[in-house]
Amino acid sequence: MAFNFGATAGAGAANPTGAFGGFGTTTTTAGPAFSFSAPTNTGTSGLFGATQNKGFGFGTSFGTGTGTGLGSGLGTGLGFGGFGTQQQQTTLGSGLFSQPAQTPAQSNQLINTASALSAPTLLGDERDAILAKWNQLQAFWGTGKGYFNNNIAPVEFTQENPFCRFKAVGYSLMPNNKDEDGLVVLVFNRKEIDIRSQQQQLVESLHKILGGNQTLTVNVEGVKTMPDDQTEVIIYVVERSPNGTSRRVPATTLYAHFEQANIKSSLQQLGVSLSMARTELSPAQVKQLLQNPPAGVDPIIWEQAKVDNPDPDKLIPVPMVGFKELLRRLKVQDQMTKQHQTRLDIISEDISELQKNQTTTMAKIAQYKRKLMALSHRTLQVLIKQEIQRKSGYAIQADEEQLRVQLDTIQCELNAPTQFKGRLNELMSQIRMQNHFGAVRAEERYYIDADLLREIKQHLKQQQEGLSHLISIIKDDLEDIKLIEHGLNESIPIRGGVFS
Fold it and tell me: At what angle do helices 104-118 and 127-141 cross, to 10 degrees?
């Protein structure tokens, strides 16, 4: 026999294993037909024995016999990582590894699955080994039926089976809302634009479903788009007491009311496909969820996922089984990215609008400053005239005379051409010229043709030569004039002597 599930025979014999090979010949002691208890090994051999724990894996052995049976090697190499931050209420469901004791139906299911994968007896010849490989391929893929015995129904392979290869672990954000907040999520099979356009009718319909009680008020906390033309609506119900106080209906109470058969059918008529209470998990629930791996997830992978959790306080590992779940999380991630981009665009528009408002405000502030200065000057002139009228008929006092002298001195300094007034006029002129021509002149560049430049140089050279010749003539004339003056000065004493 290729696979032994704890037969009561005292000693095992070597059995042919076929093309795929068995789970090893065993020597077992008396015990139940199927169990997750630790075995008592007295000797093993074969492909999946105690020394080679690399094939299919539960991490423990089948039966109380020898050998670790289906080893825990499955699932190594599967990647981890989150595919979005979709918030979801995780329920603490029981799985293959979360039950302390297996029911007979589950034990039979596992026994039949192991038989279909290792030692089918459908045909009774070497074709059973090929059938075993085909069953293994279906189990890896997570779909199909495994035939192994003519008298027993085939095993239905799903993606939750322990041998399915298409599994990974992602991370989801744990809700942080209290039960007292009363938030309940309703997922509608309708587009967001339809929900928003008919939000008031939706609130009235939910109020009617709640019995139409006037003390209850349905409020919408938020509306968010989801993939596949679905929309998530978060609601809460406020209950008003006769004495005027109000409180929110707890989320668990409202969710339990929505889960009633007649209420659930009414919600389905409105297009609700899913409802859940958005409440945070208690520390005991988180601990229980982390300690018990989900159905079909290898404990080693689950432990590694807990170690790789980037933020254990906010994120919790969740299994991703099959391509549909992976596609769903990718769509959620893409939808969340689009929402973030939309929010960034809105923020960018708000910033641009604020910048425009700031520019307008700064211009108005400058305008008001000018008006304030003008009004201050007008007020000063009024005060001057009033003070003149008040002081009319009185003699000028000493401090007033001193102030007048100081003002006259300042006025003279300002009006002096070489002092402040002249410099200010010069600076104002330069500023006006720079405002009109500075930018243009800074950009202008003039270029002269080489031939024209040579002609200009030649002309300037001729002018220079002419000026030099003219200067030499003037020098000669000056020498002549000096000679004449010298001659005249010598002839004057002679003439004076003759006439004397």
Answer: 120
Q: Tokens 């068995």 label which residue?
A: 22
* pLDDT tens by residue, 398-451: 888 898 899 888 888 777 767 777 777 788 888 888 877 755 555 556 667 788
Angle at 14 between CA 12 and CA 20, to 5 degrees: 120
Query: What is the distance between the alpha carbons of residues 258 and 327, in angstroms, rounded to a whole number?
Result: 29
Say if CB 133 and CB 17 are below 8 A apart: no
Residue with tokens 């239905």: 156
Q: With a threshold of 0.70, does the pTM exceed it?
A: no
Whole-angstrom distance, CA of residue 135 vs CA of residue 143? 10
Summarize pLDDT for 405-414 with one digit per residue, the tens.
998 888 887 7
What's the CA gap between 159 and 220, in Å, rounded? 37
Coil, strand or helix: which one is 376? helix
Q: Report the interhelical angle of 251-258 vs 261-269 (nearest 10°).
A: 80
Burial readout 134-165 (b: 16 or more C-beta within 10 A, e: otherwise): ebbebbbebebebbbeeeeebbebebbbbbbe
